Amino acid sequence: MKVCFLFGHANAPDTIMSRLEEAIENCYAKGIVQFYVGNRGQFDRLAATAVDRVRRRHPEIRLFLLLAYHPGERPVDLNDSFDGSYYPFLKNTPKRYTIVKANQHMISAADAVICYVCHVGNARNLLFYAQRIQRKTKLYIENIGDGIL
Fold first, then answer.
1. 55 φ, ψ to 5°?
2. Is there a contact between 90 and 102 (Cβ–Cβ < 8 Å)?
3. What's the pTM value of the predicted model, to 2 decimals?
């Protein structure tokens, strides 16, 4: 099954919801039915909500929570929107780098990326990482952010 990973700036505004839904629809039209999001900020909450809304029109869509930390170490309660969680075993990764490494792992494994990047920060660094991966693969990238990168 094809996979899409969603990431963006933690402080994303609610106004991006319609663009998120449209981007998810675009991925669904490309045959993508598995969507992965994190749980660290406003963008992740918006992305999970957007996938859930699109899933009402396309019930075969699945939503998974990407865990940066082992669930035994940092338990997470999944709400009803999620079909499950995924923890990429990040052997020998220092704790302060686990979020970045988990995100990079998902980008490397994904067929598509939807992101909200509009200024300097970790999300922009991830977008640049995705663009490097794109040069070697057929990774589809859709940035719904506005701004100068």
1. -60, -25
2. yes
3. 0.94
Reading the block at residue 11, the tokens are 């402080």
Q: How many CA atoms lie within 13 A of 38 on its CB side?
A: 26
Q: Hey, how many other C-beta atoms are within 10 angstroms of the C-beta on 29?
A: 9
Q: Using CB atoms within 10 A of its CB, is residue 146 exposed (0-12), middle (13-18) or buried (19+)? A: exposed
Placement of tokens 């794109």 in the chain: 134
One digit per residue, pLDDT tens: the chain, 149 residues? 899 999 999 999 999 999 999 999 999 999 999 999 999 899 999 999 999 999 999 999 999 999 998 888 888 888 899 999 999 987 788 888 899 999 999 999 999 999 999 999 999 999 999 999 999 999 999 999 986 65
Q: Please state the φ and ψ torsions of residue 56, each to the nearest 5 degrees.
A: -60, -30
